[in-house]
């Protein structure tokens, strides 16, 4: 009984909140890739708060995987930035390369999520990591 799948009626407001979050993430991701364009960390934090607050409301819907996808994207990118931050202190070029690759990876994840959400499809379980 605990593993039964519960069909929950779709909530259009969840999709709207998902789009707001994706757009905020997209702004941050694009600014991370473009030299000289810096988006505020506040935008990322607002998007992350939206994802944490609305994630429980999305439980049992296809949109739940999108909230988890965005949260994991931010957490992994943040960890990767912290782990590679020492490269900036020792060597400028390796730090720039590492952070550029992380930023491109983050942008890829956001765009992939936006495409799947636009098609009303969940993130696949294998994609959620």
What's the structural blueprint in terms of helices and strands?
Elements lengths: L11 H22 L7 H15 L8 H27 L1 H27 L11
Helix pairs in contact: 1-2, 1-4, 2-3, 3-4
Descriptive terms for the model:
4 helices, 129 residues, mainly alpha
Description:
By secondary structure, the chain is mostly helical. Helix content is 71%, strand content 0%. It is built from four helices and no strands. It has helices spanning 12-33, 41-55, 64-90, 92-118. It is elongated and about 50 Å long. The relative contact order is 0.15. The mean pLDDT is 84.
Summed over residues and divided by their number, the pLDDT gives a mean of 84
Largest sheet: none
Which H/E pattern describes the elements? HHHH
Question: How does the helix and strand content classify structurally?
Answer: mainly alpha
Q: Which percent range fits the helix content?
A: over 70%
**What's the assembly state of these chains?**
single chain
Any idea what the radius of gyration is? 16 Å
Summarize the structure.
The chain is mainly α and 129 residues long. The chain has 4 helices and no strands.
């Amino acid at each position: 009984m605990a593993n039964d799948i519960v069909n929950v009626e779709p909530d259009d407001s969840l999709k709207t909140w998902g789009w707001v979050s994706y757009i905020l993430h997209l702004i941050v991701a694009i600014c991370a890739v473009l030299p000289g364009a810096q988006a505020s960390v506040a935008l990322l934090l607002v998007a992350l708060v939206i994802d944490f607050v609305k994630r429980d409301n999305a439980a049992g819907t296809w949109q739940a995987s999108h909230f988890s996808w965005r949260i994991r994207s931010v957490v992994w990118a943040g960890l990767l930035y912290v782990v590679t931050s020492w490269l900036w202190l020792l060597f400028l070029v390796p730090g720039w390369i590492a952070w550029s690759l992380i930023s491109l990876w983050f942008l890829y994840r956001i765009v992939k999520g936006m495409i799947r959400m636009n098609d009303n499809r969940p993130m696949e379980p294998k994609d959620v990591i």
